[in-house]
């Protein structure tokens, strides 16, 4: 599996890439929560009422928690990076609409769980819940092919050679150009599409796994 290189429309990605949008919301929420926590404990300490040792302790803990919330929000924004960087480091993978729910639908993707891309593939299935993909009808038709980039997540100290979480990220979230999406879909070898189709019946196993990822 190789990276599919294309020019990402950053403005379009910010509006449509649900991972970026969720990260932005988390960042704003973290910063606001941090500010509110600090203001709240300052009021408790300096507001009406008798000051005491416990009030000072609440002030210190509140300031620390507020700082932690704000730092987490800022760090979340920095860790995601720009959409172009996310796509440039994530290999192209086949995915299909595997299950349609009331407001969302599940994508099921064939992924390589090896950290080293030069090794023979260690195939796996990864799933992700999304709410919309540009160019796709609502609700989408089950089985629709969706070219994605496999966004690698975490590894463990016990197994540094394999990814423990992989998230399919639609190419269509990064560009309004339907020709680019079509070219990405056609760039995926037929044997990978066939392997994914032959294992779609394992969706329940993927959903039951800890990180929505199983090894075939």
TrEMBL record:
InterPro entries membership: DUF3239, DUF3239_dom_sf
UniProt KW Transmembrane keyword: yes
Transmembrane segments: 26-46, 52-76
A Pfam family the protein falls into: DUF3239
Record keywords: Membrane, Transmembrane, Transmembrane helix
Protein name: DUF3239 domain-containing protein
Source organism: Corynebacterium maris DSM 45190
């Amino acid at each position: 599996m190789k990276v599919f290189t294309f020019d990402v429309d950053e403005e379009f990605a910010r509006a449509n890439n649900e991972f970026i949008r969720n990260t932005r919301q988390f960042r704003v929420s973290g910063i606001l929560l941090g500010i509110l926590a600090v203001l709240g404990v300052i009021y408790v300490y300096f507001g009406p009422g008798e000051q005491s040792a416990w009030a000072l302790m609440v002030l210190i803990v509140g300031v620390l928690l507020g700082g932690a919330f704000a730092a987490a929000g800022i760090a979340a924004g920095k860790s995601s990076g720009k959409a172009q960087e996310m796509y440039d480091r994530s290999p192209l993978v086949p995915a299909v609409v595997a299950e349609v729910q009331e407001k969302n639908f599940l994508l099921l993707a064939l992924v390589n769980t090896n950290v080293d891309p030069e090794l023979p593939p260690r195939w796996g299935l990864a799933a992700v819940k999304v709410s919309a993909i540009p160019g796709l009808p609502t609700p989408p038709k089950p089985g629709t092919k969706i070219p994605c980039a496999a966004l690698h997540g975490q590894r463990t100290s016990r197994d540094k050679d394999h990814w423990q979480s992989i998230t399919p990220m639609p190419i269509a979230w990064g560009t309004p150009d339907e020709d680019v999406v079509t070219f990405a879909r056609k760039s995926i070898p037929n044997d990978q599409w066939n392997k994914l189709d032959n294992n779609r019946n394992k969706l329940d196993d993927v959903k039951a796994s800890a990180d929505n990822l199983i090894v075939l």
